[in-house]
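Cross-check.
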Amino acid sequence: MHPVVVLLMGPTGAGKSDVALALAARLPLEIVSVDSAQVFRGMDIGTAKPDAAIRARVPHHLIDIRDPADAYSAGEFVRDAARVMQDIWSRGRQPLLVGGTMLYFHALTEGLAALPAADPGVRAELDAQAERDGWAALHAELARVDPAAAARIHVNDPQRIQRALEVYRLTGQGITALQQDRRALLGTGEGAGAGPRVLQFALAPAERSVLHARIAARLEAMLEAGLLDEVRTFFTRGDLTREHPSMRAVGYRQLWDHLAGASSLQRATEKAVFATRQLAKRQLTWLRQRPGARWFDTAQPACASRVLDALTGDAFAGPDHAHG
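Predicted model, tokenized:
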């Protein structure tokens, strides 16, 4: 069988995991997590990580491969995903890449530039500057040295602001210019070559209000399941700060601030819901720019069946779903 890779992309809270499990129950698929937080051990509740029973039933990859004190880059993800996909293909099965970390999907299909490695000294300088002047001031600095990067990086995205400024300070060049030279692991356009066939599916409720309601309900369920205690475990470890990439994950960052005394639990919860909705908005904006992706409405009960039909080559049930 010719190698196939299935990309199941969608915003947080869209219901990707349920569809993925339904597909894996019917087809020779193994799930590869495309989630920058599920790579970290112990971050289980707040990342909606599949439990041991699910992982025993359906193979999952690239979960629990880093300690939260460690960094994990898009470049490392591409390297790890390439190795895992080759292993899956070697066993006569196909990889199903599922998640909402759009940077990772972008890195797989569009390639990554040869950017300098993270520099702890430069990052410490930028963190100190942000603490003194605020991230908006650093975003303004980025706008001066790399206007294109500042235009696509939100002022409330400290991780990417820091990385763009770090690259500039290390190389003297904007990250935008350096990213022009890249090579993709998975080609998705015309003339993609003899690589694996790439099938792209975008999953999201058609109505934004449905997604917003799901996000709020999901966070409430996570809190009832013990998310605050999970974050407290990291807060009290002693080797983590709110600036570690793992602790910047939505939900963790806001509850960390609550544990630090910066906000009430109710206010932290409100901030986490708002931040998750903002994240989902950015994820959807990115997905709409994927010309090869077929859209499915996860609010429809037959969503998984429709994706299954598309995967097995049956007649596609109705026109591709498009968001307005």
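The chain has 14 helices and eight strands. Strands lie at 4-9, 29-34, 60-61, 94-99, 112-113, 182-183, 197-203, 294-296. Passed to J.P. for a second look.
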